[in-house]
Amino acid sequence: MKIRLELFLIIFIYLFYTTIATATVFTSTKDGHFEYPSTWDIGNGMIPGEMDTVIIKHKVELYLTSKVTIKSLSLSNFANENSGFEVYGTDSLVILDNFQATAHNIDKSIYTWIRGSATVVVEGNCHLLRVAENSFDKYFDFTVLKNAKFFIKGSLRFDYLGAGSNEGEKEIVVKDNGLLDVEGETVFINSGGEDFNLGLYNKGKVIFRDSLSLILNGTGKEAGITLHDSSSLQILSSAYLFNSSTASNDFAKLRARNESTIYIQDNVYMESHGAKVQLEAEEEGGVLTVGGDIVMNASAQDEVSINITNDGKVFLGGDIVRETNFGKLTMNDDGALILNGSEPQIIPKSKLPNSGTDSLFFKKIVLANTSPQPFVLTEDLIVRDSLVLTHGNLISDSSAMVVLEDNATISGSSTAYIEGPVKKIGSTGGQPLTLPIGTSTAYAPITISEIASPLSEITVQYASEPPPFGVEAFENDINNVSTNGFWTVEKNTNTGDVDLTLTWEDSAEIGITETADLVVAGWDGTEWISYGQESSGMIGAGGFVESSFSEPPPFGVENFTLASTSSFNSLPVDLKRFKATPRTGSVDLEWQTEAEINSSHFLVERSTDGINFVPIDFVKSKGDASTPAAYTVKDMTPSFGWNYYRLKMIDNDESYEYSPTEAIKLEKDASIRLYPNPVKDVLFIQDTEGVEAEVRVEIFDRHSSKVHEAVIFLNNGPVQLTIEDIQTLPSGYYIVKITGASGCQFVNFVIAE
Predict the structure, then answer these.
(1) What is this structure's pTM?
(2) What is the domain extent for residue 599?
(3) Given 621, 640, 665, which residue is the final one in a domain?
């Protein structure tokens, strides 16, 4: 055994030293071909092989007809010669270790060209260096072109430390279907040069499979990556753009133009300390896609910006996050911002306090989020060109609504519309304008006729509930009106007359069978007035009715709904009046009907929150009659505070409709205040009049589902409302029901992202 072990060691030592002995350093001595022995300083007809280190100081060509393998490669112009390495052919060069190219401070160029169908694979790292205080204009040229491929298994780093002021060429170029593929992290640093640039042309493709850092500091003038001519850049991690250059007008930027695409899988971090950082999608369809957030960190205005120009597009899967008050978005022409995440997204505030000229300028915005959670506005969304809703709803209210400026347009569908008010300012561009609005349960767009005045203001909203004033009186032309919902239209005097087209989504909800008998009806404060019909029709399971051109609704008529001039359209029960009157310890409920054809009975329902109703009385219909009838019942056990009442009107075939809701408040509520609103982390509740001590707090989401319940003691001061993991609740609108000794009160609030 001992003899065998000693023999093994002898063989191992022999092989080890034999391997070392055959490893050689090849250094070029003149311009020539890689496979010519005369190119190298090694005699005996040798050329570089698998175990050899290669140093190129001249111009060397390698034509690949079979696979070539070397240990490492170093390229420099230190020999005061133009130096370069040109690889072409049909096979591959494999570098088992590292590749380094260095441009020294001499008046000679240095280049690496990979072209044709050649492939270069660097198993280690790639380091490109332009030395400090380089004062010459001879540029550093690293080019992959004409279907060639350059793979780096390790990291790629370019230290650009100096250049002459007239150097105008890009340092790295990928073009003509060339490919640069880097598995490790990529770092480009310009800390003293003129302009470092990576350019992609004519379907050039670059893949950075780890993070990209693009850094400009010191006296560097620019560090940029620009794509042209249907090229593509993929960053399969995050991108970090940093600028602390002493020249405030210089840029660190990523820019896509000419049908090119930049795809960043995760976040983009844009940070400036006095100079400029930019993301740009511009010129003939440049596209930038960010899967995560765009995080902006600037120390002053005009430092960090996203620019979308011409017909460029930015697709954003996360949010725009400003870590300070600075950071801006500029848009012009047909440029578009598309929010297309699969998780909830926030439309950020357009302008932050003390931000100077920095603002998020929304010109054309597309909402295409696939999350079931809708967008929720926390301030007015000013749209200067167009708003396109393609997936998911947007929730607005009177304090945070969509505002379409002069000539701006909007589009949506039954699966993507606005829940809340929309304001249109100025003209409609010579065309009628359809506003896609509705509620969480109904889609009910409204079309307004052409508006010419730039001083016009018109606001529309839909409510999927009976009009709050009830169905009390009709003019002679109207037989009945719908109590399923109504549209509110407010306009200033500069708007002038407009014709309205009301659209409903599901005719089964309204019972319409004869669209020829439909009219647009408006409430004038006393009765429903007919504004006629210019046209009507069915659209799938829904339909539309347009007011008569000769009878435009006048200014001041704000509430509109569908009406029928005959009884053929069974727009719910012909209820003339429903009223609740408070008494001492009870509530009187009265209603009158115009007709009760096929009517079976009424259920009187009560709620203490306006959401969940329970039946409290049964009243049989007076029968199959076409004459008016009156009813009265009494609720002997109303709750303290608010009580909500409605009728469920049930026909013989068990179909039913609801009446308008009547609300009665039996005692004065305590004055309860919740703040801040919107809330992100901590919500406070306070009784400002000192009436309540103990109250029950119930929180409901927008679907009326209870998400929190607790009993708290106010103690005459603000109390932190303890909600476990409030940060986990989806952003959006919530209703708080507060019940105390004096009754109950409802308060709306918003949880911000």
Answers:
(1) 0.74
(2) 575-665
(3) 665
Question: With the CA atoms of 333, 339, 345 and 349 taken in that order, what torsion angle do they form, in degrees rounded to the nearest 10?
Answer: 0
DSSP-derived pairing of the beta strands 313-316 and 287-290: parallel
Tally the C-alpha atoms within 13 A of residue 551's C-alpha that lie toward its C-beta: 16
Beta partners for residue 315, in sequence order: 289, 338
- The per-residue pLDDT of the chain, averaged, comes to 85
| Pairwise CA distance, residues 81 & 77, whole Å | 6
Q: 692 with 732, same domain?
A: yes
Whether 629 and 692 map to the same domain: the answer is no
Ramachandran category for residue 729: left, alpha or beta (phi over 0 → left; psi -120 to 50 → alpha) = beta
Q: What is the pLDDT of residues 58-116, one digit of tens each?
A: 999 999 999 999 999 999 987 778 899 999 999 999 999 999 999 988 888 899 999 99
State whether 545 and 655 are in the same domain: no
Q: Are 660 and 704 within one domain? A: no
Strands (E), 372-513: 375-376, 381-383, 386-391, 394-395, 402-404, 409-411, 418-419, 422-425, 433-435, 437-438, 446-448, 457-463, 480-481, 486-491, 500-504
Helical (H) or strand (E) element with 632 = strand 629-635
pLDDT band at 10 (very low <50, low <70, confident <90, very high): very low
Please indicate, yes or no, if residue 320 is contained in any of the structural domains.
no
677 & 747 share domain:
yes
Is residue 251 classed as helix, strand or coil in its secondary structure? strand
In the structure, what pLDDT confidence band is assigned to residue 242 with cuts at 50, 70 and 90?
Answer: very high
**Which residue has tokens 């992202």?**
753
Ramachandran angles phi, psi of 429, nearest 5°: 70, 30
Which amino acid, one-letter code, is at 164? G
User: Does residue 144 fall inside a structural domain?
Assistant: no
455 in the same domain as 472: yes
Q: What percent of the chain has pLDDT over 90?
A: 50
Q: What is the pLDDT of residues 425-481, one digit of tens each?
A: 999 999 999 999 998 888 999 999 999 999 999 999 998 876 766 556 777 788 778
Tens digits of residue pLDDT in 604-622: 998 887 778 888 888 888 7
Q: Is 151 left (phi over 0), alpha (psi -120 to 50) or beta?
A: beta
Query: Could you count the other beta carbons within 10 Å of the beta carbon of residue 15?
Result: 10
DSSP secondary structure code for residue 669 in this structure: P
